[in-house]
Amino acid sequence: MKYKNLQGCNLSAKLLASAKAAFAAACITMCGDLAQASPVISNIHPDGTYLFQSSGALSFTAASSAAITNISVQLTSTTLPGQSFLKVLTLTHGLTVTGPSNNEGVSAALTTNMLYTAVIQVTDANGQATSSSVSFDTIVPALTFEAEDYDYTSNGASGLFIDGPQTNAYRHLDATEGVDYSSLNNNHQFAYRGGNDNGLNTETVGDTPRAPYVGTTNVDYDVGFNNGGNWANYTRTYPAGVYNIYMRGADGNGTQADAASLSLVVGGSPSILGTFSVPAIGGWQKYSWVPLKDSGNNLVQFTTDGSVQTLRVTTDQGNYNANFYLLVPADTNPPNTSVTITNVYPDGSTMFQLNSNFSFTASASAGIDPSDITVQLAATNLAGVGSITNLTAGNGLTVTGSSTSWSVSTSLTSNMVYTAFIQVTDGNGGSSSSTTSFDTIIPAYTFEAEDFDYGGGLFFDNPQTNAYTLNDGVSGMDFINNNPAAYAYARIGLSTETASDTPRLTHAGFQDYDLGNAVGGNWGNYTRTYPAGIYNIFLRAADGNGSTTDSASMSLVTSGLGTSSQTTSKLGTFSVPATGGWQKYTWVPLRDVAGNLVQFTGGSVKTLRFTTDNGNYNANFFLLMPAIPIVSDFQPDGTALFQYTNALSFVAHSSVGITASNIMVNLDGVNVTGLVLGGSLTSRTVSYPVSVNTYHTAIVTLTDSVGTTTSTNSFGTFNSTNYTWEAADYDYGGGRFFDNPQVGSYAGLSSVPGVDNHQSDLGAQPFNYRLNSPAPSTTPSGDLPRDQFGPGTTNYNIGFFGGGSWCNYTRHYPAGTYYVIGRFAEGAAPTEAILSQVTSGFGTSTQTTNFLGNFSIQVGGWSTWEWASLKDGNGDLVKLTLDGSTNTLQLSGSPVIGHPEVNVNFLMLVPTTPALKLKMSVSGGNVAISFPTVTGSTYQVQYKNHLTDATWSSLGSSVSGNNAVRTVNDTVGGGSRFYRVQVQ
């Protein structure tokens, strides 16, 4: 007998019999192991949960049921002034690995006073991969002082200060206007200071915490509502040395040059040291490090002799929140570099810079080795799906020229948004880097948000830039505006304002506008002869607050255009993310309720209506792009646990047509062939056989001339008639049980410790289903539905179930041979559960058990449920044979010390597939192939005339299993023929 692997199942071939001097071979495809779990990355340190995690090394654990075969870390380090450097660390370059191959400890060296982002990727021997990202810093502060801890006044004395203050030491301390601070604000928000309604405005902060604010009652604050002219003094005994100074600042509007300045106060007179220019990176509570720089854009070096000095922060242009200030030792001998990076193109100076290549010049008087030129290219399509590629001279970069001046280029793809990070090192070791963002979009059609209909349904087809100015809309016919504000575009209708988005060539010499002040219920109609084709719709939008779900929606006006009685059909919604400011724009796709990109068909005069739902956005313009391929109608869809079927199916939609070779299905880690296709090039029906009574993950990749999309669907093909028992329905009252219990039969029943269960964690709670007589907690599981849990019933799980804990489950289990599968959730780290069979002492406190196997449970979340199969010590699926009599199975927590507890929902017996024993009989020219079958499986007999033939051919149609022997006949001539049976 010969074995090999075929599409994740075991393929056996056996020489059977001879017919007319020819041999016939049978090949049987059987259901094999269940889907393999991905490796797990855990114990990451530093983990970025708080600031100032100084460490000499990044460390983590990579674990898998199979051996770890590859680990890489993409480590981006950024200096506090903002210079970034990239390293790719591997097992042979930069990573230190210890421990067994299935549980490796990994570390990499770090440098102090740096900001890091690490992207960790781990692959195991099964080909399964996982990744994890973490951002952190290794800053060692020389001194920090809080923005809210400015000088105070007490008993008539001003200019007082606390040296080396404890956290929140200045809380409720008064200050004197014009002496300790000056405020031109009228907000009167004094969350921290200002007991007498004075001081700078303070509010609680949402920054990454620092150690004094973690696990304590301390509250972090910032100084906000900063108007030009505000100032505050900060008197301290600053430590002797030479320092750079940084503000921990946030800006919810656009980046603000000279947001504030810092001065040294001597004899009551301030002398300016430099200014802080606060960038907008995502909102008023999204903080970054802002360096103090002089007028030449150099880092200010603040020299202090260790005496008492007063620094003054003055708000200049404002638009920032200040959390605290940081002093770090200045590098008085920075490395010199001769590197310059010039002639970057596309450079992002305008939108829609279609170019087939990205190029730049890298120059250095000290010379550059081509191997020291690196480009990290992040490419994202308009739907937000992207990838990051690291390019070098030997991998993706074309480098020509001389050592002192290299021309560098790499290819680009159209209709993508790119960020390119360039890093170049010269012969002296000096480095320079540059980052630029641009797009290669080829617009099919655009229309401006401010160009809604006018005059009661009138419109311009393909209007010139700003063509709608002075053409007023009619309320209730062309627009509705529930929040009239500014009309910068000079037309009555929706509120408009000037926009400062990345310029477009179509607007050269013209002012760009957006729709602002958007509130729920606002809408505008956009009538055009939209171009023929099938399109996705994108909104160019900005959000200066937090991300908003369903910011706005798009509908098709179906009747009543130009009247006050219009009907619409909703197409989808736009959900605008937080972009870092009200004039920092991004692309937002129109999606349907299932999250798919909406497909809009043009080719005639149509009216689209744009409606504000939850608001919080500015809208610049709309973009139509040829629709990317999408998957719909995936079955089984994974919305229930038991979706018994032997085939998956879906529809592949393409606006331009998709070939069969560009529809790829990866099933349980294997790229499959033999997809069954139907329908048209623009709407392909696709199906493929899958094994029953198991769980699957299918990854569908569609590619056409517009782009590539990937959809992932996980589902189970378990039969709802499989025998299951609830983890919460363990024995009660000293070995008592219900056979085939109804839902809720064990509710409120108590167990006898040491007889029905043992609970090692006595802190378990709550007990929503069973009594708390030392027992695991019971809570609603929130897992996917099962038929028996209908309206008015609740599915419970057990929790706080770990090492030393066990529960007995006594039943008349059905006779047969089974695999055992459990439903688990784990939120801490990979762990295990054990299943045993009680062999004696049932109903007593003295029981003996026979170990059956263990469940390997991966981390995913305390409410993220996963399947796990019972396996023996060799990693093989356990086959449990039961005779139909009363048996007690015992589930236990992890036997490994230190491994975490687990949540358990239910366990299930899955009938094993009996081994196929093929029989062949020959009578004259007829060959009969007989084999046992199982209900729920399908069987296809295939043949070859020569084993060297490239493919197998199907013999007739497939036959369905019926728990009996099925026979398929064939008529053969005088040659040879070989047979196999494929089972799904």
UniProtKB/TrEMBL annotation:
It comes from the Bacteria. GO terms for molecular function: carbohydrate binding. It holds the Pfam family CBM_6. Keywords: Signal. PROSITE patterns: CBM6. Residues 190-328, 445-625 form the CBM6 domain. Residues 770-781 have a biased composition (Polar residues). Residues 770-789 are annotated as: Disordered. This is CBM6 domain-containing protein.
